[in-house]
Design goal:
alpha/beta; Rossmann fold; 10 strands; globular; Glutamate racemase; EC 5.1.1.3; Glu_race; peptidoglycan synthesis; isomerase
Length: 261
């Protein structure tokens, strides 16, 4: 069983990508909706939350952990791997690899929460792999609340996205990493504001391909496919809005179970 956690609803875009690539593998999802967003929290707090989330997923039967949150992926994977003996995947590295493969000019933009951008994790990874690349980052603190509210196509959302993307467009980026798994829900607007020549990198989809490659390379994980069990979805705070958005992301009925962290 594959366990995925995020600070809220955004990691469901990662779950959707995993379900498309690995049909038959059971998924268990935890959205820490009571403590979202993680982007404004300290590094120590995000690491603590991530360890608690991982322990919950493992206790519920997960045998692999996908950190479907860019903020947590930027600071917590080492601590998770040290504490738990299971495969752990994060969204940053595969997104960087895909961005470098897509970028012809080496002008790469990154948008994310304040925590993700402040960590400079994307810039560091990109520079490690291609020292000549130029990285232009911009924090977008209002986008997660907009997604959590379901404001996917409001005029206000379009104006806010434009204001965040404009400084990167001026830099003539040719590739843009969506450094938050909430952002694919706004991808049509982001694509429009960035320009049709800019390649958009979805970090959740990128990690799903990495997990698929891992499963294909390990027979013991291939054998876990074909299950007819139900996926399970847990949240630390329930709202009808979350359920409605979750169902629109996954295109299926979703039963949310409330748990206390």
């Amino acid at each position: 069983m594959i366990g995925i956690f995020d600070s809220g609803i955004g990691g469901l875009t990662t779950c959707r990508a995993l379900k498309q690539l690995l049909p038959g593998h059971e998924m268990i999802y935890f959205g820490d909706t009571a403590r979202t967003p993680y982007g404004s929290k300290s590094r120590e707090t995000v690491v603590r939350y991530s360890l608690e989330n991982t322990r919950f997923l493992l206790d519920m039967g997960a045998e692999m952990i996908v950190v479907g949150c860019n903020t947590a992926s930027s600071v917590a994977p080492a601590a998770i791997r040290e504490a738990f003996d299971v495969p752990v995947f994060e969204v940053v590295t595969p997104a960087v690899e895909q961005a470098l493969a897509a970028s012809k000019k080496g002008q790469i933009g990154v948008i994310g929460t304040r925590g993700t951008i402040a960590s400079r994790v994307y810039e560091t990874r990109i520079k490690e792999m291609r020292p000549t690349a130029s990285v232009h980052s911009n924090p977008c603190p209002l986008l997660v609340p907009l997604v959590e509210e379901g404001w996917f196509d409001r005029p206000e959302t379009r104006r806010i996205v434009k204001s965040y993307i404009h400084p990167l467009r001026v830099r003539q980026i040719d590739t843009l990493i969506l450094g938050c798994t909430h952002y694919p829900m706004l991808e049509p607007i982001i694509k429009q504001k960035a320009g049709k020549r800019v390649s958009i990198i979805n970090s959740g989809a990128a990690v799903a391909r990495q997990v698929k490659a891992y499963v294909d390379a390990h027979p013991e994980w291939r054998d876990k496919g074909g299950s007819e069990g139900c996926d399970r979805f847990y949240v630390s705070d329930y709202t009808p809005q979350f359920r409605s958005i979750a169902e629109s992301i996954l295109n299926q009925k979703v039963e949310l179970q409330l748990v206390q962290q």
